Structures are given as structure tokens and as C-alpha cells.
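Annex B. Sample input.
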Amino acid sequence: MTRLRFAAFTLSIAGVVGVALIGQSAPDNTGSRMKSAADAYLASLSPELKQKTQFDFNDKHRTAWFFTPQQDKQKMFTRKGVRLEEMTADQRKAAMGLLKSGLSAKGYEQATTIVGLEDLLQELEGPKGAMTRNHGWYFVSVFGDPSNTGKWGWRFEGHHLSVNYTLDKGEVVAGAPIVFGSNPAEIKNGPKKGLRPLPEVEDQARALIKSLTADQQKVAKQAKEFGEIKEGQPRADVGPPVGITADKLTAEQKATLVKLLQAYAHRMPEDLAAADMKKVRATPDDKLYFAYSGSPTPGEPYTYHVQGPEFVVEFLNVQADSAKNPANHIHSTWRRLPIDFGLSE
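Annex B, continued. Sample output.
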């Protein structure tokens, strides 16, 4: 029954947001859509919930982001903000409308699938599992007052999902960090067998790795796997780039690398994705690096980085999933360099 609830959750969330947006006039850019969605979300809340969800723009909570489970010894949540399970149906519609304003249609589909996977994890791990699995434990925070003249931001966050945006004068100045994770990376059994919530970030990377010649492998492959994504801070802190540069790839290999980066950028709305991909294409080939560790064979652990002067993509698939299938648990992110959240330093 849990897997049926997982499917119903994903479909119902997508449906209610669609209904909520019908009849609204279409703002002319993503920043305006985010402001309208944030205004609608805040207006839907009681005074008590509004106080819990809204923070000063410079509050330390804005850069204290996490995509891993955050709970205390009693297995109770420690995240701030307002969680989905304490909202009314109309408030949840508004909260999901805010999330939708910051994602493409595909990105939103992937995000809601990630949320729904909590039900599957609850079934696989059982009541004695170390972590609380609850699709109501996704939290919304708004930083500052939504405005077309000043700075403000928002976050939608829970296990394996952290979507962070910063705006200034009505324009998005940072859409990072954005983290999508998936446990399992591929559902191995049951009604959803074969479902892969984040296929592109693996398929394009595996294709690129397999295409590398022996000489290219010597440069691209790292002896040590890349470390875990550094949450809770505004800096990716990945160090200098390593691996093979795009000028050492064939035209076909570089095209695959671009498709891999598109898989990350296209989680965002079309205009933001286009702006980031413009930066990618403007990056000199000798400044765009690809590096990996491990093996691209499914079931074997591997990690990779794609790094340019202004961004880094981080990916890990090294953990077993909750059904004990090896290397079937993804963490993936796009981050800005040298610092996220629209900060200068």
C-alpha cells in the first residue's frame, strides 16, 4: 500500500498545483513568478505559520542548508521553516506552487518523485530504521520580503532535496545550491520497478566515461573518490579543478559533456537554464574540467565532478540503497563558484 501512496502523492501534488495556477495572469519572467508564488504562499498562512516560515534576509539560516536527514536523538526533525505536514491543503498548494516557480516541468517532476520516495524508504526500512521517513517533512523558508526592488530569497528543503534561490530587484541572482538525490537510484522491485528519478545525470556521465581512450582515462580518472557534497555552508569548497579539459575531448565527447551539464541546468526554469548554459558554452575548453573515480558499470560505486571557473557539478553514487543494492543511491548538485547564495565573498 505504501508504494501506491507514493504514486498517489506524486500525482496529487502535481495536480493541485496545476489547478492553483489556472486563471492567474502570467508574469513576464521567473523572478516575477517567484514573487507571485511567494506572496501567495505567505498570504495563505496563519500568523503563527508565517512567523515560522519567514526570516530576515541576512539570517544565518539562509545559508545553513541541508539535503541529508536532519533529526535529533529522538528522531524528531531539527530543520527550520514550515513543513508540509502542518499545512492545510490550500497552504500545501501554495507551497508547491513556490517550488514549481523555481523548477522546469521536468525538474518539478523529479523533485516531487524524490519527495514521494520517502514512502518507499519507510516501507523498506521499517519502523526500526535509523531515520524518520516522512514525505511531510519538507520545509519552506522565505528570507526577507518578496519584492521587485530589494533582496529576498526562498528555500524548499528536505531529505535529498534542497532548492535555494536569491533574488535582487526582481531578478534571480543565484539559483544555487540545488541538490537532487535519489534512494534508490533505480527501483529494483515492486510496482515501480525500473523507475529512475534522475537518469540523465548517470546516463550521460557513463557514456562519456566509456568513450574515453586509455590516454584520456589516465588524466580523467582519479585514484580517490570525490568527497560528499558539503552542505550547511555557502561555499562548495571543492578545491582546484582536476581531470581532463574539454579541449582534450573529441567533438562527440564534448557534446556528451554539454548534455550532462544540461541535465543539471534544466532542473531550473528555461530562462535560468539558458543563462547557465550560455556561461558553460562561453567557458574556454581548457578551463572546463571533467574528472571521475570508480566504475561506470551499474552497481559499482563512482563519483564525478565537472568544474569551470564559475560553477561545479558534484555527483556521487557510492552508497547502497535501503534495499541493500550496492551503489544505488545518488547525490547530485550544481553549485556556484566561488560562493553560493549570490554572495560576493
